[in-house]
Amino acid sequence: MTATAWEVDAGQGLVDTGIFTDPELYQRELDQIFRQTWLYVGHDSQIPEPGDYLTNYLAETEVIVIRGKDQRVRVLRNQCAHRGNKVCLFDRGNARAFSCTFHGWRYDDAGQLVGVPFLSEGYHGEVDFAGWGLQRAPRVESYGGFIFASWDPDIVGLDSYLGDLRWYLDRLLVQEFLGGVEVVGGRQRYTMPTNWKLLAENFQGDDYHVQITHASYLRVLAEESQGLRGKVNLNDRLQVAVGYPDGIAHGLGALKVGAEPKDATRELQIAEQLGPEAVEWIRERDRRVREFQRDDPVKLHLCSNINVFPNFSVVSGPNAIFGTGLLQWHPRGPMVTDVWQWAMVDRAAPEVVKRTALRELVGAQAAAGMLAPDDSENFERSSDNLAARRSSERPFHYAMAIDRDDDPGLRARLAAEGVDVDALPGLIGPYVWEVNQRQFYRYWAELLS
Amino acid sequence: MTASLREEVELFLIHEAELLDTLQFHDWYALLADDLHYVIPAAESVQGTNRRFDETGRDAAPRFHLMDETKATMWLRIRQLDTGMRHVEVPASSTDRLITNVTARELLDRAVEAKSKFLVVQIRHGVHESMFTGRRTDRLRRTEDGFQLVSRRVEFTQTVLSRALSIFF
Known about the structure:
The complex is a heterodimer of chains A (about 450) and B (about 170).
Chain A: E1 8-9, E2 14-15, H1 23-32, E3 39-43, E4 52-58, E5 61-67, E6 73-77, E7 92-94, E8 97-99, E9 106-108, E10 113-115, H2 119-123, E11 139-143, E12 146-150, H3 158-162, H4 165-174, E13 181-183, E14 188-192, H5 196-205, H6 210-213, H7 215-223, E15 238-242, E16 250-258, H8 265-274, H9 276-292, E17 299-302, E18 305-308, E19 312-315, E20 324-331, E21 337-346, H10 351-362, H11 372-387, E22 396-397, H12 408-416, E23 427-430, H13 435-448
Helix pairs in contact in A: 5-13, 8-9
Chain B: H1 3-21, H2 25-29, E1 32-40, E2 67-69, H3 71-82, E3 94-106, E4 111-124, E5 128-143, E6 146-156
């Protein structure tokens, strides 16, 4: 299959549906997308001590993410150098070494080969220990505790890769001004019968689907605004295209910004139901947010969805008492995705706030939540159709406002509210906007060409 | 364990499963106690232990579960089904909940602990078939109208669920 056989015309907003089904193209993606990008593998809080590890995947390749005795995090392929057996069999743990159960080759916490049975009898002492360690991802870097790895030794640094996204991640995800964040125990894992790109681009910028796909959720929130949930107003939300128009494309959606920091009244109302500890935390949190944002030309209030190219997504709630979901779209063939979801809370928050925040996330964008299963249903239906694809199939339509990526009307409206859009990193667009999805496919096609 | 207690509990669990299989969600909701805690922990394999699930009681460390519900959040879920726009249940899944290996023991305060295993088959659109197996530990409360479900902990045998969850267990 040649590079041009699958037409991705991001300029026209037309995407050949073969890119969601073709097995040969999928193999090229494994080499050219997933080996030339930074992939998320875990968070510092999950492996705080030397020897702590978790297993994860770089696309289809299983890796061990381990903090060594020297505190350095390494990403090791979970494959014995001798004959390819797995050397680690657990989701997480603490280990000083990994031994293969086939012939017993043994590796230390840096992946170095340190033991070979029958070394003198069998090998006459001649084994190249330095050359036959576990395969190591050549690049591992973290941004504010979020650890990424890449197979590409020459890839730009993680800071450059994230680019303008960092400004948003500092405020939404890393949040050092709050005392940092914590990825709690428990990982959801389920299968979605669809191509990984349809999930990634959904978080990159498909806020258009929310009011239809999630109509039932929005209605329940509006009608049953008892307790901790309430009516959601989507009209004043924005999107951001990072890397527009020719850089590394990341996207943020359902953002809310203002000339003043977010009003914490709603959070305080919720906190009052949870007790004085929660109220105290929300007051303190609000104070720290205001202090951190003091010099920000525009104040960031919230953001619902982020995609870090290619397949790491974030979902956040409407307020500070709502857990943040970290989603990985692990590809398993052109039409199957292994969905992994973790949950993150403010590290310094009292336990009652953490507990409530996690419960809110579980009930919303999660494996059994009131949101994600409806997305999954839509993708399953479209996958049924994609499976019947013929070569003459019409492309998918991403051509909304195709000649108007920039929106002067939006710029004027926000200016009237005292918000200078140009002070925000990235290209700012309205809530319903397909620029982020076009950018996703534009950058994807660049990597493949 | 007396045979009569086991039979009494088993009939309750069968009744409950039948309500869910026949989409009588409001009648099922009526069986939930006001202080309900319904939790499905996420499984993981941790080096050095064969335990696949952590504690989920009210005093356990905060964790990310598959479901972690109170009666109030269950009500939101029932209301979501009522809208007719919960796409993943339109048309409703065909389900069979097979409940087996039931044991029961009396606790203090008119409460009963019930354990059971389940095999749930879910079919979407007549073609997409999923299967869930596992075990449940329930706490039931005797009332004048029969048992109420006070707490339920569901442990799936599957670690990788074959689909996002849109049904109750």
